[in-house]
Design goal:
mainly alpha; globular
């Protein structure tokens, strides 16, 4: 009996070690997003957006929007199959991307391009700067506008919620200038390498303009993408 317990403990330790090593090897853009002082009004507004517990389920104003979503979902699911073989995981991820992108007034292709560059679609990616998860969110954001627990950033929906809210925040600060907002997201404002990489990746995730027009017509603030 003791021998069995010892074996299980050894296996558990090995599993934890493997997880840590695997996470450290995940491709992640080693950006150094800067922590900036937020005004009380901005901090409270961002915190409210993060705390909104609405489920990531898309809502459609018309049959045309539903058809556009289904077209988008089928196309992106096919493109993502090699990176996310599990159908259930892939569909849940794409549904959440759609929901969180539109909720923040962002283009889904832009969010997918950013995720591709930031983490290679690895849920547990950790950069050398300490950024976590799919959208490589820096832990200080949980202290500024969340519950203070950076481990929650390894949750898929929470990570996408933070990432989309933060990118929208930076777009607002930069008055809709996507190039500068992406640089700020990565902590390399004014440098071309990171924005160019994300915008190039974005092109591979475009479907058709009709299926993504929802983001344009429902952007709450900032400049819509063209």
């Amino acid at each position: 009996m003791r021998c069995r317990r010892t074996v299980w403990r050894v296996l558990a330790v090995c599993a934890v070690c493997f997880f840590i090593v695997a996470a450290s090897l995940n491709p992640a853009w080693a950006g150094d997003q800067k922590e900036e002082q937020l005004s009380d009004a901005v901090r409270l507004a961002l915190a409210a957006q993060i705390a909104d517990a609405a489920p990531p389920k898309p809502h459609f104003r018309s049959p045309q929007h539903l058809i556009g979503y289904l077209m988008w979902l089928a196309t992106e699911s096919s493109r993502l199959r090699a990176r996310m073989p599990n159908f259930v995981v892939r569909e849940a991820f794409l549904q959440t991307v759609w929901y969180e992108a539109h909720r923040a007034g962002l283009e889904p292709a832009l969010v997918l391009g950013l995720i591709q560059v930031e983490s290679g679609f690895k849920k547990y990616a950790i950069s050398s700067a300490g950024a976590l998860g799919l959208m490589q969110v820096m832990p200080f954001w949980t202290r500024q506008i969340g519950d203070g627990n950076p481990e929650t950033l390894l949750n898929m929906q929470i990570n996408l919620r933070y990432g989309c809210v933060i990118l929208r925040h930076y777009l607002n600060i930069e008055h809709g200038d996507l190039f500068m907002a992406l640089g700020r997201y990565n902590g390399s404002r004014g440098k071309a390498a990171y924005p160019d990489a994300v915008l190039a990746a974005r092109k591979a995730w475009l479907v058709d303009r009709a299926s993504e027009s929802f983001a344009k017509t429902n952007a709450k603030s900032g400049q819509a993408l063209r």
